[in-house]
Amino acid sequence: MILRLENVSKSFGALKVADSVTVSVPRGEALGIIGPNGAGKSTLFNLITGNLFANEGRIEFLGRDVTRAPAMERVRMGVGRSFQIPQPFEGLTVFENLLTAAAFGRGGREAEMVEDCAGILEATELLRKANFVAGSLSLLDRKRLELARALATGPELLLLDEIAGGLTEGEC
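Now predict its structure.
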C-alpha cells in the first residue's frame, strides 16, 4: 500500500470534519474523493500531507507511520499535492516556481532539476510561458502551474485537490 489511513479523525472544536476515516490505496491506483462543499475533502488532503494533524488515528505512507511527520518531511518522502486555490510564488517566473518546488521536494543536482522541470513544463503546456511571472497567469495556467509544481517535487503519491475547479468544460 502506498497510503493507509486507519480511523483518522479531525475536529475543530465541536465540529468533526473527519470521523474515523479508514482507507487503503495500493500503488498505481487512482482514488477519487467526492462530496459536497464543506464535506472535509480538502481537510483530508491536509491530514495526509501534514498541513494539519489528526486528533486520532494513524496515517502510513509507504509503510511508514507519518501521522506526526511535518509536511516538509512528507513532501521529501514523496507526497505531492495541488491546492484547490492555486498558490504560486506570484513574483517568481513559472520556471522559478518549478525549480523551487523541485529543490524543496527532492533536492538533488540543479542540472537534473532544470531538465526535469523543462519536461514538466512541456507536459503541462507551460513551456512557452516559462519566463512569465506567475502572478500574471490566467486561472487555467495557474491550475497548470499548480499541477506542474506538484509534479516537480517528484511525488510517489499525487493528491489533486479540485484541479479543474473554476475551469470551463473546454479548459478541462
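The longest strand covers residues 15-25.
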